[in-house]
Amino acid sequence: MGTTNSFRKVVEEPVSLKKKHQELLKLIDFSDTFSTTNHSNSIKEITQLIFNYSPKWIDTLFSIRNKLAAIVGLKNSVPEDYNNDFKIGGYVGFFKIYDLEGAECILGLNDSHLNFRVIIARQTLEQYNVKVTTLVEYNNLKGKIYMTIIKPFHRIVVKRMVANAFSS
Questions:
Q1: Cα–Cα distance, 138 to 158 (Å, whole number)
Q2: Quick check: pTM over 0.70?
Q3: Looking at residue 96, which CATH number applies to its domain?
């Protein structure tokens, strides 16, 4: 990590999955991991900091995405079972909670074009102890095209969202 001056709030790291994470989707077509440091907050607070607070430019990108999604028949509305309880089956932002165990939360969404999961894990490392891993499974060609288009934005947006959880 070097000196304090070289410390960055968020870094991209190689994806490292436990066996149970490898089984979250039938096939993992895309994955990435971004990490930050936070020893102050619980996994609930960290997850909410990442997914419930975003700058206006990210909100604008999601708004554009939802309008385009409606045109091509992708999900863009609030699910019927939506609730903001922080428990399995609840939602954080527009992502459903699939698993919640100790210092780990798994969010996701299944759609006609792709399925994805986001693993938020708080580890005991001194720096970059919060790992946010995105896993994507393409359901068809539409999913592959969709990810090809949004991938550059995904990295920028996720890095910015993960920075919301930074706490020195």
A1: 19
A2: yes
A3: 3.30.530
Long-range own/partner contacts, residues 97-102 (CB < 8 A, 24 or more apart): 98/24, 100/43, 102/43
SS3 for 139? coil
Question: What is the residue range of 126's domain?
Answer: 28-163
In a domain, residue 91? The reply is yes
Judge contact between 36 and 141, C-beta under 8 A: no
Tokens 């971004």 correspond to 34
Q: Backbone dihedral region of 73: left (phi > 0), alpha (psi from -120 to 50 degrees) or beta?
A: left
Is residue 80 one of the residues assigned to a domain? yes
> Cα dihedral angle (19, 34, 120, 43), rounded to 10 degrees?
140
CA dihedral (103, 85, 27, 70) positive or negative: negative
Q: Is the pLDDT of residue 5 over 60?
A: no
pLDDT digits (tens, 9 = 90+) for 44-68: 999 999 998 776 876 777 677 667 6
Q: Which residue reads 């968020």 in tokens? A: 10
Taking only the tens place, the pLDDT of each residue in 70-79 is: 666 666 667 7
Structurally, how many domains does the chain consist of?
A: 1
| Token couple for 119 | 């693993």
